[in-house]
Design a protein that fits this description.
Layout: E1 2-4, H1 13-27, E2 37-45, H2 53-56, E3 65-72, E4 75-83, H3 84-102, H4 108-119
Parallel strand pairs: 1-2, 2-4
Antiparallel strand pairs: 3-4
Length: 146
């Protein structure tokens, strides 16, 4: 469950207590009485007030974890307090990681080495040996390997 606060609202004990109340309401709802799951309740705000910071920045815990993972009869429960900037920074880092992976551009020889190693029995005979890689044709348009 995610509680998004207006941009003018900073996280303080009052907002943290509110997300805690939502957690209790869900866990006490009979519709979820026998559902084995992990619940994450997340309060998203512009800024976290100083007196709440020690609670969400504890050594050895993920940043933003407001309450320790606990078991409540049938479910594990975690309460988070996060800022928009933290969420956006982490999303940007994940995007850059994926983007860097996609930008991998192996050379023709690297690609052929991979094919020889993994699928050597399926590629044409003239491509099975490194010396047999065809060179560019003279007088024609050269197309880069993909």
């Amino acid at each position: 469950m995610i509680e998004l606060k207006a941009p003018s609202v900073d996280a303080d004990r009052e907002q943290a207590d509110q997300i805690d109340d939502y957690m209790q309401a869900v866990l006490n709802d009979p519709r979820f009485a026998n559902v084995e799951t992990t619940w994450d309740f997340c309060l998203v705000v512009r800024k976290i007030k100083d007196r709440l910071l020690p609670r969400v920045r504890q050594a050895g815990q993920p940043e933003g974890l407001y309450s320790e993972p606990t078991s409540y009869e049938h479910a594990r429960v975690r309460v988070w307090v996060r800022t928009w900037s933290e969420i956006l920074r982490e999303a940007k880092q994940r995007l850059e990681f994926v983007k860097d992976g996609i930008d991998h551009n192996p050379s023709l020889e690297q690609a052929l080495d991979y094919l020889r190693t993994r699928h050597g029995d399926l590629i044409p005979d003239q491509l099975r040996q490194p010396a047999a890689v065809p060179g560019p044709r003279s007088g024609g348009v050269q197309h880069p390997a993909v």
